Amino acid sequence: MLLQRDLIIRFLKYSLVGCISVGVYFLSVFIFIEKYQWDPVIGSAAAFIIMTIVSFLINIRYTFNSRFTQRKLVRFLLVSLVGFLLNVILIFFIVHILSFHYFIGELVTVLVIPLVNFLLNNYWTFQGE
């Protein structure tokens, strides 16, 4: 039961960091797309990169109580690349194929990508630390 409790606490911390990261993401998306009139796919991609940097810096210490290693950074970036590819595919499909507003695409990505990233980071990047 302790392992399950620790996993739940870690997921809650990851979720809090995720909320902060999503705030950074949406602010960046808004600036890139609304202010600078970037294409939604490009604006979303740039915002995702910014969000990933913020997420790593907070998660390594707060969520996973870990220390920085090059291996963890590489793994985190690979997990983020999976999330990034999912993000681009979902946004492209929703905006350019289904012709929905980019905000609908952003809502979908916020529901799907964090869960995938947590599972990969918890069980691979930080190996249940």
UniProtKB/TrEMBL annotation:
UniProt membrane topology term: Multi-pass membrane protein
Endpoints of the signal sequence: none
Domain GtrA/DPMS transmembrane: 13-126
Keyword annotations of the record: Membrane, Transmembrane, Transmembrane helix
Pfam families in the cross-refs: GtrA_DPMS_TM (PF04138)
TM regions (residue ranges): 12-33, 45-64, 76-94, 100-120
Localization per record: Membrane
Superkingdom, natural source: Bacteria
Family: Belongs to the GtrA family.
Protein name: GtrA family protein
